[in-house]
């Protein structure tokens, strides 16, 4: 019975550029749930902390350059690992059209604000939180969305909110947003792969 379940599990690739806290939580979530498998972690920076996290959890990882994505090598590797679904977790390169076309509605990203506000090229990490605070927003949150050819413009799958306090700094707001990411991102990925709506 276990072998049969493993054979039909969807294979996920996580693309990341940084420390990989979200990536680790996603890997651990699916190790426990067994509804899908994180089969590969791809990074574009050799010093990315996510590499050590993947190694500790026995997930294969590869370092690919921007050129590897541009010339089709990344797509070939995704095929070699039989990847069904791609998750961007703090990945800072633009995904090339060839991968987008090969994985329609099978690539999701998480953004640390409520799109369509505070999105677009260059809007990531503390830059987003700084912009939210500077605009005197009353709430922020996360947006999980499909990706397309434009930064942060793919169809929204899920949003969750948190308050922006008068005393917030980018760092304190980031803590609140990270909590939403950790709570919801793995569950939304699972629901999306299984074709279900996440109820909260």
UniProtKB/TrEMBL annotation:
Described function: Catalyzes the transfer of a formyl group from 10-formyltetrahydrofolate to 5-phospho-ribosyl-glycinamide (GAR), producing 5-phospho-ribosyl-N-formylglycinamide (FGAR) and tetrahydrofolate.
Organism of this sequence: Phocaeicola vulgatus PC510
Gene3D superfamilies, A to Z: Formyl transferase, N-terminal domain
Catalytic activity: N(1)-(5-phospho-beta-D-ribosyl)glycinamide + (6R)-10-formyltetrahydrofolate = N(2)-formyl-N(1)-(5-phospho-beta-D-ribosyl)glycinamide + (6S)-5,6,7,8-tetrahydrofolate + H(+)
Family matches, as InterPro entries: Formyl_transf_N, Formyl_transf_N_sf, GART
Broad EC category: transferase
Protein name per the record: Phosphoribosylglycinamide formyltransferase
GO BP terms, alphabetized: 'de novo' IMP biosynthetic process
Molecular function (Gene Ontology), one example: phosphoribosylglycinamide formyltransferase activity
Metabolic or biological pathway: Purine metabolism; IMP biosynthesis via de novo pathway; N(2)-formyl-N(1)-(5-phospho-D-ribosyl)glycinamide from N(1)-(5-phospho-D-ribosyl)glycinamide (10-formyl THF route): step 1/1
EC number(s) recorded for this UniProt protein: 2.1.2.2
Cross-referenced PANTHER family: PHOSPHORIBOSYLGLYCINAMIDE FORMYLTRANSFERASE (PTHR43369:SF2)
Binding-site residues, (6R)-10-formyltetrahydrofolate: 109
Chain positions of site Raises pKa of active site His: 152
Alphabetized Pfam families for the sequence: Formyl_trans_N
CDD domains reported in the protein's UniProt record: FMT_core_GART
Domain Formyl transferase N-terminal: 10-189
Keyword Transferase: yes
Sequence similarity: Belongs to the GART family.
Catalytic machinery residues: 111
Binding residues annotated for N(1)-(5-phospho-beta-D-ribosyl)glycinamide, in chain numbering: 20-22
Keywords recorded for this protein, A-Z: Purine biosynthesis, Transferase
GO cellular component term of the entry, any: cytosol
């Amino acid at each position: 019975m276990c072998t049969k379940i493993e054979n039909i599990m969807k294979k996920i690739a996580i693309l990341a550029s940084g420390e990989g806290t979200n990536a680790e939580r996603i890997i651990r979530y699916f190790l426990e749930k067994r509804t899908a498998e994180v089969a590969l972690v791809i990074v574009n920076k050799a010093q990315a902390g996510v590499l050590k996290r993947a190694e500790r959890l026995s997930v294969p990882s590869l370092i690919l350059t921007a050129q590897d994505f541009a010339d089709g090598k990344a797509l070939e590797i995704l095929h070699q690992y039989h990847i069904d679904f791609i998750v961007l977790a703090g990945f800072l390169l633009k995904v090339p059209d060839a991968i987008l076309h090969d994985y329609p509605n099978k690539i999701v990203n998480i953004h640390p604000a409520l799109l369509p506000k505070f999105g677009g090229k260059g809007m990531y990490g503390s830059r987003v939180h700084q912009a939210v605070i500077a605009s005197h927003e009353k709430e922020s949150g996360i947006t999980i969305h499909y990706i397309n050819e434009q930064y942060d413009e793919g169809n929204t799958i899920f949003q969750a909110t948190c308050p922006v306090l008068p005393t917030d700094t980018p760092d304190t707001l980031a803590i609140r947003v990270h909590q939403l990411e950790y709570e919801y991102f793995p569950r939304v990925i699972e629901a999306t792969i299984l074709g279900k709506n996440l109820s909260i």
